[in-house]
Amino acid sequence: MTAADARIGESWKGPLAAEFESPYMAALRSFLIREKEQGKRIFPKGAEYFRALDLTPLEEVKVVILGQDPYHGEGQAHGLCFSVRPGVRIPPSLVNIYKEISADIGIPPARHGFLEHWARQGVLLLNSVLTVEMGRAASHQGQGWERFTDAVIRAVNENDQPVVFMLWGSYAQKKAAFVDQEKHLVLRAPHPSPLSAHSGFLGCRHFSKANAFLESRGRTPVDWQLPERVE
């Protein structure tokens, strides 16, 4: 897998060039080819593996939200963590994210789960692993994606602009443990899953805290209200 193969914005190609040229990325590409040759269905589609990077240029990143795996159900994943395509049922974790936004800043829950509006404003919706086999959660863990997305986080961490990292759950908190807290705002809470949301995610007020931080650093806050209609 090369930078030329990846549909990512130009701003990421320089910082990630060494990753695309590394043997582990070649091995990852071979793994994905073998999986497809065996007739396995891989989500999201190839053109959307790097959708989060395509929609959110490095210099425009304001907030990083970390997920773990793409959704493995039919028609859900499209390259942004927690987001699903228009017309797809809103997943339970996203329902809780909407509840917290409503309680925190008074925005009523959206009727869809399509989060591109956030991504286009500088919210990097990054999964740790960027592909999955249909119906098999975590099936592509340990194949190299984690190393690649670590490099993405490092690139954001080393950027001059102050950024908010929303780290929900122990997995995300461990993955981004190296982030410079002198420069960036690191917000931690339990995962928004129904299993843990009531243990501290609901009531965390991360969305108002993020916007207050951005404004205090001279950056435009995020409009968390999603458009009612999406194509």
UniProtKB/TrEMBL annotation:
Its biological purpose: Excises uracil residues from the DNA which can arise as a result of misincorporation of dUMP residues by DNA polymerase or due to deamination of cytosine.
Record-stated family: Belongs to the uracil-DNA glycosylase (UDG) superfamily. UNG family.
InterPro entries listed in its UniProt record: UDG_fam1, Ura-DNA_Glyclase_AS, Uracil-DNA_glycosylase-like, Uracil-DNA_glycosylase-like_sf
Catalytic activity: Hydrolyzes single-stranded DNA or mismatched double-stranded DNA and polynucleotides, releasing free uracil
UniProt keyword annotation of Protein transport present: no
Keywords, alphabetical: Cytoplasm, DNA damage, DNA repair, Hydrolase
SUPFAM superfamilies in the cross-refs: Uracil-DNA glycosylase-like (SSF52141)
Cellular-component GO terms for this entry: cytoplasm
Molecular-function GO terms, alphabetical: uracil DNA N-glycosylase activity
Localization per Swiss-Prot or TrEMBL: Cytoplasm
Domain Uracil-DNA glycosylase-like: 54-214
CDD domains reported in the protein's UniProt record: UDG-F1-like (cd10027)
GO biological process: base-excision repair, AP site formation via deaminated base removal
PROSITE patterns referenced in this protein's UniProt entry, alphabetically: U_DNA_GLYCOSYLASE
Catalytic residues (positions): 69 (proton acceptor)
Pfam families reported for this sequence: UDG (PF03167)
Protein name: Uracil-DNA glycosylase
Domain of life: Bacteria
Enzyme Commission identifier(s): 3.2.2.27
Source species: Rhizobium subbaraonis
Keyword DNA repair: yes
Enzyme class: hydrolase
